[in-house]
Amino acid sequence: MNFLRFRFLSLSIGIAFTVVVTARGAENSTPTVALTLDSALQLALENSPVLRAAGGRVEAAAGRVTQAKTWSNPELELVIEDWPLRKNRGYADAKRTIGLSQAVLFPGKRSLSKQIGVAGVKLSAADLALRRVELVREVKIGYFRVLTLERQVEVSVQLLAMADASVAMARKRSDAGAAAYQEQLRAEVLAEQARVEKGDLERERSAARQTFAVLLGRPDLSGARLTDSLIETPAVSLLADFTAGSLAAHPGLQAAQMNLERAELDHRRARLEPYPDLKVGVAAGEVGETGESIGQVSFSLPLPLFDRGKGTRQEARANIVVATAELHSVQQELQRDVTNAVGRYRAASEHVDNYRTRILPKVDEALRLVQAGYEEGKFGFADLVDTQRTTAEVQMTYLTKLFEMSAARAELEALLATPTPKS
């Protein structure tokens, strides 16, 4: 149902007003950009600084992998030995060698460093995917919130028009002596209340538009026209998509698993830290006194007299405990979020269906009967005003329920990590 119509009787001239609630809201300024939900999502994915930062972290992690694969630079060594200090003897009589030395890591260290780097890339990629999912969810909710407020503002505008018409009619009846002054005061109070409510909704709509434009990364689009409509039909298949393993692909869970994997690799690497790295050198030169060419091979190995990796291993073991606890926490939070979102979606869907099939038709029929009865003198002015206001309030509540259903649906789609447009 793309729009709803309610007829209200104008007491001043006896002509029925028609309130048309559509998905298009009126703004003070003429919007220059029309946004569908898909185009809004595309804008957000292209302009989000949060996604740019997360993408940068992926690149940084990839750089660490490249660095882990690189050997350290060799060292150039020039050695002069046995330099005579006697008179007429000097550099030419010394033993001179020039060569290179290279550090060789203990077996397994380099391989584990590369694996740690790869795990870091996967963790950063999972975090980027999580940011995308969260952004898409927030954009969807923001889009539907603006639509809801636009339609509620339209209802409030029509309600205020009816209230002002009622004031005019009540004042005319009071001046003619056909009604008590109390009737006029009641109509004026209701009109002022409607005016305040309209102002509150307009301010709330303006704030929602600003918030939505910031989500898009385009604050200049706060006046854009949203062309899609509120979802009024529940997605029956959405709840059926949740199975025992439906959360396995959620990026939040994948990030927690990658964090645990990296912690375990860090621990394995820390266990190798006490084992010393070998330094190998090769040099060539000559003996100064005889001019004889010589070669030289050297090996140096630090003596592990002190365990300088104990603290590192302790930290690595603690990080495994932390990562394991965080993984369990994420699993529990996702299950809780699913349960809550499913409950909200089912409740909102039931409310929407109840309003659409039972409450709205009854309110419409009640208004029709009161209007007809008022014309026939069966109902008083207060009965008609109350029924008109009740009709508008029910419509407001129905729009709120539509938003709740749309928001719950966006949350469920985020938990399912439903594919979204790529920037």
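(ticket continues) Second input and output from the same batch:
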Amino acid sequence: MIKTFSKEIRLVLLSVKYSIMKEMPNKFTFITNVVFMILNNASFILEWIILFSIRNEIGGYGFKEVMVLWGFAAGTYGFCHLFFGNAIHLSDMIVNGELDAYLVQPKDALLSAISSKCQISAIGDLIYAFVMLIIYGFSIPNLLLYTFAIVCGGIIYASVSVIYNALSFWFGKVDVITETVNNVFINFATYPDSVFKGGVRFLLYTLIPVGLSNYLPVWLMIDFRPELFIILGLSTILFAVFAHGIFNKGLARYSSSNLMNARV
């Protein structure tokens, strides 16, 4: 099982490598996409500098805590879109019958499908995320914990995208649902969790688990507790397994479009 898992990971890394290599001939576009994503993220720092010049804290967060929150928001988004770029487009692939090429390959169909595309600008998100770690306070333990949390958050984000996109097996196009989930992940991930109460807070830790992918890692960085570390790891595994199960169950209803585009 471990050997199979490591093989699948290598295939994902190779897929990302080839996607990047395809973009490299046009170095100007490649670098521009990355740099502009970093600048786009960094522009919001000015807003928080202004806010914290008025107040010492917001929702229990100081300036450094907000920066690490933004780091996790950018990092989880970047990890998901770099390594599993097709997770948010899976609905279109299902509805248009574009999974054929992945089903005939001797590797996991879901992992192969969602890793077949990567968003180059997501590299900028990841770079920005680690710049935020430097602002927060760089150390080797912080780096290891931060990286672990970003990987877990990115996998949770990708898994939730797969779960909602897989509804297309039963209900056809679910664009409104998947876009809403994606927008919630992007928008809510950049605000302190303490500003959300009641039903909204419950939603953000269950159906759209921004709390697990972004808020929990922030509290891990602020005050490391083994139980939070375990919860994050187990949540990541559970969401990944559930997403894989939903996808495989839906495949029984999949209708091929007879598009047998070869993939290497």
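Agent notes: DSSP finds 13 helices and no strands in the chain. The chain has one domain: 2-253. Closing as not reproducible unless the customer responds.
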